[in-house]
Structure formats: C-alpha cells, structure tokens
Amino acid sequence: xxxxxDASFAYQAVYRYxxxxxxxxxxxxxxxxxxxxxxxxxxxxxxxxxxxxxxxLEDEGRVQARPKRGYFTQAVAAPLLSEGSxxxxxxxxxxARQPGMLALSSDAPAMLLSLENPLLMMERELxxxxxxxxxxxxLPFGEPELRAALAARYTQSTHRYWQAEQVYIGSDLHSVLxxxxxxxxxxxxxxxxxxxxxxxVLRQLQAANIRVIExxxxxxxxxxxxxxxxxxxxxxxxxxxLSSSVNVPQGGVMPAQDKQQICRWLAERDIWLFExxxxxxxxxxxxxxxxxxxxxxxxxxxxxxxxxxxGAEAPYAYVLCRGQGPQLQxxxxxxxxxxxxxxxxxxxxxxxxxxxxxHLLMLRAALRERMTRMEALLETHGEWHVVxxxxxxxxxxxxxxxxxxxxVFERLLAQRVVIAPGxxxxxxxxxxxxxxxxxxxxxxxxxxxxxxxxxxxxxxSP
Length: 462
What we know:
- The protein is of the alpha/beta class.
- It has three domains: about 10-75, Winged helix-like DNA-binding domain superfamily/Winged helix DNA-binding domain (Arc Repressor Mutant, subunit A), CATH 1.10.10.10; about 90-115 and about 360-460, Alpha-Beta Complex (Aspartate Aminotransferase, domain 1); about 115-355, 3-Layer(aba) Sandwich (Aspartate Aminotransferase, domain 2), CATH 3.40.640.10.
- Helix content is about 40%, strand content about 15%.
- It has helices at about 10-25, 35-45, 45-60, 90-95, 115-130, 145-155, 175-185, 200-205, 225-235, 255-270, 325-335, 340-350, 355-380, 405-415, 445-460, and strands at about 65, 70-75, 100-105, 165-170, 190-195, 210-215, 240-245, 270-275, 300-305, 315-320, 385, 395-400, 415-420, 420, 435-440.
- Strand 11 (about 385) and strand 12 (about 395-400) form a beta hairpin.
- Helix 6 packs parallel to helix 12 and helix 7 (about 175-185) packs across helix 11 (about 325-335).
- The chain is globular, with a radius of gyration of 23 Å.
- The N and C termini lie far apart (about 50 Å).
- The model is unreliable at about 1-10 and about 75-85 (pLDDT under 50).
C-alpha cells in the first residue's frame, strides 16, 4: 500500500482491497478472511485501520465477525426478481450491491477518473487554515465561497449571469429537488419530461405527487416539435424537465434551434423549466447549447451534483434559480442542511483553481475511450441496435426484436450480471425493449464475457 497516503484515509483503501478480495473469490460460499494483524502487516497499515474497514463491511452485511475465529464472508445468494420488493429499481440496486455481482447498470463517470484524492488533500489543508471552532455550525444555503464559485462558473455573459445568492447547496439531489418543488408551489401539478428520463428525476416528481407526461426522444435526440407544441397547448403543464446538453440516458444532443424554439413556447405560457445539468459537462464535443442559453431567466431552475465529476466524496447537489428567491430561502432555512464547510471550500478551490477544468478534459477523453471499447464489443453481436452516444457514461440499447428487458434482467442474475432495463426510465412502462449499458466499469474483469451473457439472455428470452 502507498505509505504516502494519509493514515486517516487509509481505511478507505483497505475497504476497497477487501471488497475486491471478496468479489473475486472463486467460491460463492463463506470463507475466512485475513485477521486484523495479518491484514495490517500485508497492507502496511495499523490494526485500528483494518478494524475500521472490517466494521464497515460488517455494517453492509458482507462479512461476519466470529469470536476467537476471525472474520468470514457472508454467503448471500442474489435475490431473484420475484423476491423482496416488487419494484424493479429496488431490485437493480439490491443486486448490484451483492458481493461478486458485475453491475453493467452503474452510473458513475468518476469511477474512471476521480478527483477524490485532490479534494481530500485540499480539505486537510483548509482544515489547518480554518480551525473548526471558528466555523459556523451550519450555512443553510451552502458555503459562500462555493456558491460564488458556482455562480461565476455558470455566468456566460451580461445577459446570462448568476449571483452567489441565487445558488443553493444541499446534501443530495433528492433534497434539493424536493425543496425546489415545494418553494415554487409545483407539488401536485403537471410536468412534461423527456423520455427516457433519469430515474432519480422521475422518482422525485412521483414523490411530489406530480402527474408526469413523457415526451419521447427520437434516435437522434430530437423531439417531434409539432407534437411537443400540441401538448403545451392541450395540457395545463406547469413544469418541464430537460437535460442541458447530452440527453440522459438516451445519449443524443438536441439541436440549438430546437432548444430555442422550446424555450420560446415555455416563456409564452409561463412554464417553469428545470434543466438537468448532471451530465452537462460530459458531452464529448463541447460546447453544446444549453436550454439556459435561451430560457426566461425568471422561470429557469438549473440543478446538478458534484459526484458525477469529482466522485463519491463530493455527494452534494445544488440548484441555481433567479426567480422566487424568498421562497427558496425560506425552505432551505427550514431544512437547515448541516454540510461540511471545509469540504465545500475544498470543492470551491478545485473550481476556481481550474483543476476541475483540467480534470474534465481527461475524464471526457477516458469516457470516450471506454465508449469506443464497449462499442467494439457490442458490434460483435446482432441482438441490439447500437447508437453511439454524444457523451455521458452509457449506451442506450434497443433489442432488434421485442424482448422484455425485465425478463432479461432476471435471467442474468443467475449469471451474476446486473443490467438496467429500459422500464426504469419511465413511469408508464415505456422502453421495455431497451436497456442502459454502462461503460464506466472495472475493465480488469471479463466485460466481453458479460456482454456475451447479455446477448445470450436476449436470444433465449421469449
């Protein structure tokens, strides 16, 4: 193990080592793991570090401690689709977390290249500069330095600009969307979304008792504009949710002229536009036009997260909104997020120093390389249509014949492979013959074999 790593974070490396040790075990049954002292000697860390890593695995149910005998892996069989929760999304997540499962369903671009180590190094440096006793207990709208950095990053001109007080930071995407829908009095209304649509967005709209109309995207990433306009004229739509650059998860890019026309129609009808910027900077050939370049700034809310680019150590989400400031301030004050000011300052430093921009260049290149590698594997099979995505971290595949991907998902569980069926990306059961296939995977594993198993499962499904 690299002894240059700070000891306070060594447990994370030990944890990752143990997870890989468990998942690569040739046996599906239980087996004994190294003792605390054996593991400490093997990895060059303290016994307390190995004990903490094992404690995390115990909490997750991956290992079991037995008095005077040591630690053993848990023999856990992958749950079948018919067991436990009937919700397909819950089943996908539950199985993806099982030891030894290969999740082709992942959605984590930063797995390829993260900024977690620079972030943690920056945080430790800032912790020395800003003693904890001098830090406020909580900042309900987010750390001022990070709010200012985000406002500056999103400002493009004297007409398209943001101020720090128009930025709100929360613990995760669920929280900031929930608060925003409440502040803008959009609960229980009618929303129009692109389809397929992010499952996280769909779940949040559903939780807010919002009725959802899904507008399908064509293979090239475009809407049927006359049909879109007809929907706006016919239905009392109060909210539209659209991806900023690359459509998530479809992978297409809406032409700038289409976005401009859509924004005109929304402005004419005083409809809120929520722009999903989660993958906004992961378009392979930026800069792509964003909806916010054309939208009414008083009816625009942009939302995103840090983890897709930085990694899991930056789980926070944020919104930018110029309209309804007092209402947003009220709900964020009531919620009272208690987020680490030092971690937020560290993210701000990565933004203002240009480190994230350098990282994005490398991350987009890495994503494109993995996309090309996965595309070559997919083209060796004839079970699906392959459309090359314009960005992001996954392919949106359509089977060449009508195959229920929910059944394919169930078949693959026995092969210890997890996919994300297309039904996850619709509230109305649309896209049953599609799946999202990630290419941000651990390529040290046999991905070609997993793709082969997927092709076989599709061929064998009725």
